[in-house]
Every structure is written in structure tokens, then in C-alpha cells.
Design brief:
Largest sheet: 7 strands, mixed
Distance between the termini: 76 Å
CATH class of the largest domain: Alpha Beta
Helix content: 10-25%
Structural class: alpha+beta
Low-confidence stretches: 1-31
Number of helices: 8
Strand content: 25-35%
CATH architecture of the largest domain: 2-Layer Sandwich
Shape: globular
Mean pLDDT: 86
Order of helices and strands: HEEEEHEEHHEEHEHEEEEEHEEEEEEH
Length: 417
């Protein structure tokens, strides 16, 4: 460490060996050759390596992450094309992870890829096989593409989307991510183009974005796909019925003249609407600490005793949450001291930090709920409480009341055949 600088009013100490009263030094100061100059790097110490830039930092695109995807509002039926100025077209509604691909094939150091989720968090590390395919097939292209990450499972001719396998892909351990990439590889289905080269295409009409997406993406091969479309509402209605058998979620109507508006509900989605009678087997207290936050629902297999949890109903108003506590109170299981029994609840990596416990309710109350899909014995999304059914017996709440869609091969959906 160099010595501290002398005060401005201190006398010059003179050259080495001079007395305190000696004359001031004239000419260049002498330096001990054995003492290294602190301003000169020591060549024997290797310089620290620069921190490598992340793929997102290396992107040179007119649209950069994060970007909120354009959304859809729900409708009860497939709309007519002329119901919207400029007409509509229809696409299958994929049941996967919404994902925006940011790809720069000319980035310094090699192609840069970022997979952005609907919530803005990167998905890149969880799907290395998708990243590798993008680099292999897109080469030196530069683009931002909206689509869906899906996992397809099953034998050829009988494939379908597998939501459970897709959900397992979000794992904190890098070794597990690599294993799952081999065992349950994902695919990417493209349906919109937000940028190409140096051009931001979000202000362009959807029909122009689709035309350019077909030119960019149409020649790629699996696991990179381009969603099919139709302008025929009757075909879209058949898709709504048939494609459910391949695990799809419904159909989407897209205005041909619409610009891309992040976070806005510009499109229209039509999903399956069904009802079922279920038994209430418990409830969770609302996060505010007051009232019922969600009802836990059960169904039983025909010929078997006991109910299995199949999902939950929530989204109650504050007043309705308080009313439900009163309505459920006579049916709550209690211990010898009269205190409500509590169940441990189900845990997964997405809710490991949350309190999953619930108040146990005797399987005596039947309610009617609205839902869109029952997959592998569970409702795929949060269901809607419709009404109590005092005219129904709990024993009648079996899984065979739920319609099972006819199987449909996923490959036919992806290929358009």
C-alpha cells in the first residue's frame, strides 16, 4: 500500500539519506528498485476473467424481454368471422406454458436465446432441448415469437398433451432438468411473430404477422411447430369438440386486423363448459384469515368407498366467504375437545412455502360446480361453485358422471392432416 500523501504545508523530506534540515531534492525522485510500483499490475497474478453476459444481455433485438403476452377474453361459443371488423380466424388453444421466444442468431459469442413466461420470468434453464433446437434450426435468424411450450406423450397415432409431465419440468436442480429434458422432451408451437430482424412487428396487423411467421417458421421440423388456422367457424367448432381428445384446451379467435397489444385481451377464447356434482371434503381459510378461501372437492370411483380430492372452488366475495363458514360449521369434523380437525393438504414445489392445511368436512354436502377439463382424476383448473344440491346424495358423486372426450391423435393437430 503506498504511503499517505504529505500535507501541503509539510517540508519536502528531500532525497533518501538527507537530514531533516537538508536542501530540497532537485530532479526526478529516486525509487527503490526492489519496491514495486503499486500502479503497475503484477504480471505474476492472472487478471480476473470478465463476467460472461447472459443470453438476455447479449440479445440485440427491437423487442426485448420481458414482454407480457397478448391475452384473450372468454366467450361461450365460437364467434362468426364477420362479428369483428376486419374478420377473424381461428386457431387451436394449446394447453401448455405460454412462452415468448427471443432469438438472436448473430449475437456476440454465438446464438442468444431467452424463453420468457407469461409472468415475465425466464423459462430458459428448464427447457435446454428447446433452446438447442432453436439454435439448430433458426441459425442466424433474429426474431421474437409468441407460442406455447407443450409436452406430448403416448404411442404414435395416440399421442396427446401431458400437462402433468410439463409441470414437472420446472425443477430447481440442474441435474434433474437435464434428466427430464431427455425423458419428457418439450415442443414449441408458434402462433405469432412480434419482431424479425431489426423490425418491431407489434404495430403490424395480425394477418401480416402471420404471413411473415409462416415464411420464417413454416419450414421447421419437430419439435418446433407452427399452429394451424382456419377461417371456417364450422371447422373451428369441430376442433373444439375433437381436439379435446388430444389434450387441447379449446379454440382461439384472432382479429385479422389487430395489432399485438401486450397484456390486453384482444383475442377471444372458447373453452369447454361442463358441470358436475361433487362432495365438499374440506375448506381452506382465506389468506386474510377470515372466511372460506376455497372449498376442497371430492369424487369417488364407482364401486369404491371414500372420496378422492379432485380440485377446489374459490373466488368468493368477502360476504360469501363469511356465509360459507356458517353453512359448513355443522359438518366440520371435530376432536374430543370440540376443535376442528385439520388435514395436512397436498404439497408441490410451486406451493412448498404455503400453508396447505385445511379444515376437514364430513362428506355430507353436495354442490354443483362448473369446470372445463377433468384429467387424470383431477380438475385441470380452479372450478366455479354454482349452487348447493340438497337433492343429491354424496354416494351419487362418482367420476363416471364426467364425460370423457374421444381420443384424438395430437400429431394430426400439429401437422394439420
Amino acid at each position: 500500500m503506498p504511503p499517505p500523501p504529505a500535507r501541503r504545508d509539510a517540508p519536502d523530506p528531500g532525497p533518501a539519506g538527507a537530514g531533516a534540515t537538508g536542501p530540497a531534492a532537485v530532479g526526478p525522485a529516486t525509487t527503490d528498485p526492489a519496491t514495486p510500483d503499486p500502479a503497475t499490475p503484477d504480471p505474476s497474478i492472472p487478471a480476473a476473467a470478465p463476467t460472461p453476459a447472459t443470453p438476455a444481455e447479449r440479445l440485440r433485438l427491437p423487442v426485448l424481454p420481458p414482454v407480457d403476452p397478448m391475452l384473450a377474453r372468454a366467450a361461450q361459443a365460437v364467434p362468426e368471422p364477420d362479428s369483428t371488423p376486419g374478420s377473424l380466424w381461428f386457431e387451436p388453444k394449446w394447453d401448455g406454458f405460454r412462452c415468448i421466444v427471443f432469438y438472436d442468431g448473430t449475437a456476440a459469442g454465438g446464438p442468444a436465446v431467452e424463453l420468457g413466461s407469461r409472468g415475465g420470468k425466464p423459462l430458459t434453464r428448464y427447457f435446454p432441448e428447446v433452446v438447442a433446437e432453436l439454435e439448430r434450426q433458426l441459425g442466424d435468424a433474429r426474431c421474437v415469437v409468441d407460442g406455447e411450450v407443450v409436452v406430448r406423450r403416448g404411442e404414435p397415432g395416440a399421442e396427446r398433451l401431458d400437462w402433468d409431465a410439463l409441470s414437472q419440468r420446472i425443477h430447481p436442480a440442474a441435474s434433474r432438468v437435464r434428466t427430464l429434458a431427455r425423458e419428457t422432451p418439450a415442443s414449441f408451437v408458434a402462433f405469432d411473430l412480434l419482431a424479425e430482424g431489426d423490425e418491431d412487428l407489434m404495430p403490424a396487423p395480425a394477418e401480416e404477422r402471420r404471413r411473415r411467421l409462416e415464411a420464417l417458421w413454416g419450414g421447421l421440423e419437430a419439435p418446433l411447430h407452427l399452429t394451424q388456422l382456419t377461417q371456417d367457424p364450422d371447422l373451428a367448432r369441430r376442433w373444439l369438440a375433437d381436439f379435446e381428445g388430444a389434450g387441447l384446451d379449446g379454440v382461439v379467435a384472432k382479429p385479422a386486423a389487430a395489432r399485438y397489444e401486450p397484456g390486453k385481451r384482444v383475442m377471444t377464447k372458447v373453452k369447454h363448459a361442463r358441470t358436475a356434482d361433487v362432495v365438499v371434503v374440506g375448506y381452506r381459510v382465506h389468506k386474510s384469515g377470515e372466511g372460506v378461501g376455497s372449498l376442497l372437492l371430492g369424487l369417488r370411483q364407482p364401486g369404491e368407498d371414500g372420496f378422492s380430492q379432485v380440485g377446489g372452488a374459490s373466488a368468493f366475495t368477502a360476504a360469501r366467504r363469511r356465509e360459507l363458514v356458517e353453512e359448513l360449521a355443522p359438518h366440520v369434523e371435530r376432536d374430543a375437545d370440540g376443535e376442528p380437525l385439520r388435514g395436512a393438504g397436498e404439497r408441490n414445489r410451486f406451493s412448498a412455502s404455503k400453508d396447505g392445511s385445511f379444515v376437514v368436512v364430513r362428506p355430507e354436502l353436495v354442490c354443483e360446480v362448473g369446470f372445463d377439463q377433468l384429467e387424470k382424476g383431477r380438475f385441470r383448473h380452479v372450478v366455479r361453485f354454482l349452487r348447493w344440491r340438497p337433492d343429491r346424495e354424496p354416494s351419487s358423486c362418482t367420476t363416471d358422471q364426467v364425460e370423457v372426450p374421444a381420443a384424438y391423435d395430437l400429431e394430426a393437430v400439429l401437422s394439420g392432416d
